[in-house]
């Protein structure tokens, strides 16, 4: 007799479970759009592949270029999307990108209070904590305390500006360039820039350096 022969019931395997409400709705809408020829069968797959190809390394490249090229920095702060497109970073939707510069007097923090709107073309998928309700609520209400929990202490004489992303308008933080990096190459600078620095919850420092 097989060692696994016994009488207690097992739950159905995951692939045997009936589809849920949202899965049924997604399938129905997708099939309807294909039937109406509003999208091609492979278009959703291609869009997923595009999303999967985006990582914070793209944003870090943008930040590093802004640090070494004043002209690019000015264009980036004027029109973030157009400046990113100069570097070959495509945008797959109609969202606009506003780049906010950190200075000695202002520290910027990004949040989406309603859901998880995020600059995905330049950073990829958002981290779980960015989507979590506590961060979305507290970042607006008590940003200085939230930053402190990330290990980022902002002096009282520095203003913290919280920007709330929307479905059509996303934000990217241009962090301050760390002192002592005057001789760094653009690639070395990019290797220091983290995703969290471009959201605004941490600063860029020499400890983040990854030698190439």
Write the layout of secondary structure elements.
Layout: H1 21-35, H2 43-53, H3 56-68, H4 70-78, H5 80-86, E1 96-101, E2 106-111, H6 120-123, H7 128-131, H8 133-141, H9 143-149, E3 159-164, E4 169-174, H10 186-192, H11 195-199
Parallel strand pairs: 1-4, 2-3
Helix pairs in contact: 3-4, 3-10, 4-5, 8-9
Helix-and-strand structural type: alpha/beta
What is CATH's topology name of the largest domain?
Nitrile Hydratase, Chain A
Average pLDDT reading:
86
Q: Oligomer, anyone? A: single chain
Strand content: 5-15%
What is the CATH architecture annotation of the largest domain?
A: Alpha-Beta Complex
Largest sheet: 2 strands, parallel
| CA distance, first residue to last residue | 60 Å
| Secondary structure tally: strands | 4
**Strand arrangement across the biggest beta sheet:** 1-4
Task: Name the CATH class of the largest domain.
Answer: Alpha Beta
CATH superfamily of the largest domain: Nitrile hydratase alpha /Thiocyanate hydrolase gamma
Q: How many helices? A: 11
Query: How many domains comprise the coordinates?
Result: 2
The residue ranges in which pLDDT falls below 50 over 5 or more consecutive positions are 1-14
How much helicity do the residues have?
A: 40-55%
EC number: 4.2.1.84
InterPro entries: CN_Hdrase_a/SCN_Hdrase_g_sf (IPR036648), CN_Hdrtase_a/SCN_Hdrlase_g (IPR004232), CN_Hdrtase_asu/SCN_Hdrlase_gsu (IPR023900), Nitrile_hydratase_asu (IPR018141)
Protein name: nitrile hydratase
Binding site for Fe(3+): 112, 115-117
């Amino acid at each position: 007799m097989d060692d696994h022969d016994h009488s207690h019931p097992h739950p159905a395997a995951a692939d045997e479970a009936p589809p849920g409400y949202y899965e049924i709705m997604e399938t129905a809408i997708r099939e309807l759009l294909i039937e109406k020829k509003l999208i091609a069968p492979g278009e959703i797959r291609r869009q997923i592949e595009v999303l999967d190809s985006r990582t914070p390394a793209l944003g870090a490249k943008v930040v590093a270029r802004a640090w070494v090229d004043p002209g690019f920095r000015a264009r980036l702060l004027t029109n973030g999307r157009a400046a990113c497109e100069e570097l070959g970073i495509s945008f797959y939707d109609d969202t606009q990108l506003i780049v906010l510069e950190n200075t000695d007097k202002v520290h910027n923090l990004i949040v989406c209070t309603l859901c998880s709107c995020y600059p995905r073309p330049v950073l990829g998928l958002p981290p779980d904590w960015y989507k979590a309700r506590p961060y979305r609520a507290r970042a607006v209400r008590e940003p200085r305390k939230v930053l402190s929990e990330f290990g980022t202490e902002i002096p009282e004489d520095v203003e913290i500006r919280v920007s709330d992303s929307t479905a059509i308008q996303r934000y990217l933080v241009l962090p301050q360039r760390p002192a002592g990096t005057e001789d760094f190459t653009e690639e070395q600078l990019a290797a220091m820039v983290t995703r969290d620095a471009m959201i605004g919850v941490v600063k860029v420092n020499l400890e983040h350096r990854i030698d190439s």
